[in-house]
Amino acid sequence: MTVNRNEARRLYLRALDLISRLNLRLFAVEEADQLGLIEADERREMQVILNSATDTMSALARVDAVAQALVGLVDEAIRDALRDPTAVVSVPVDDIEEHEEEAYVHVLVLQSLAARLAAIYGLDVQEQDHGLTSPQVRLRMICQNIGDSLLFLMQKKMIEIPKSEHHVKHILFACIKAAFQDALPDGKVAFPSALKGHVPDLSVPMIKACVETKVARSPSDLSNVVDGLLADMSTYGSTDYSTFFAVIYTSNSKLTQELLDLVLEQRQTLLGLNPKYQWKWLLVRGPLAPASSRNGTAKALA
Q1: How do residues 166-207 score in pLDDT, each as one tens digit?
Q2: Residue span of the structural domain in which 252 resides
Q3: How many other C-beta atoms are found inside a 10 Å radius of the C-beta of residue 206?
Q4: CA dihedral sign, ordered 216, 274, 187, 145
């Protein structure tokens, strides 16, 4: 009987995503005060991600009997992770023993086991998506993960906590520029109208996509941001740019993708909107300084 590689690939990619998110959520739990986050909220989210990651690893190990030799190791790793998720170990940086940093031991173990399972199943681990084009899927994933990316950069002491939409927007552009060399920053593309040119925060000409980034700290902020973006929707778009990602960034655990979707449905129904171009709306949560914090800009890597 042949290995169900489609199911193995799906579980493997999901496991990698969850383990990566777990790594950064563990950091968020430990540094919640410094990150402007609520520790109890981060701990609950970490536990949800941990449970999902371990469930997925358990399923991945059992896709086919060919991986039977690793089932016991996976189960043991799951028990250890659930018992003490924040355990750390010192690891060398760039293979230099004198320079070490702490890493979450269970994250390392689960990543290693996932790679071994992928090898046993003979996976070609290229992700496939049946919606957006593959490059657009990649752009969406970068946008969806900007909160985790900011956490990672803070964990490595490369930046300070973002304090405004300006900070989030420019770090998101840096992440996208690393993946898409033709990415253009704010001000390089405009959609003219009778009164003025409407300028997206960034654009990627090769995949005909633009990104708008907004910060919302409260439900009222979310409502105002949605209204502003819906106004943009009526003026953005051309034959050169037909897909738009609206990224709404927050540190407020009460703001969710479900709430955003509900607000959008209500507004679009009320206004009778029928957008000509494709818009993808993303609610992303990550570290954000309180609104009263006004100290400087994000610190660049020295």
Answers
A1: 999 999 999 999 889 899 998 899 887 755 667 899 999 999
A2: 137-285
A3: 11
A4: positive
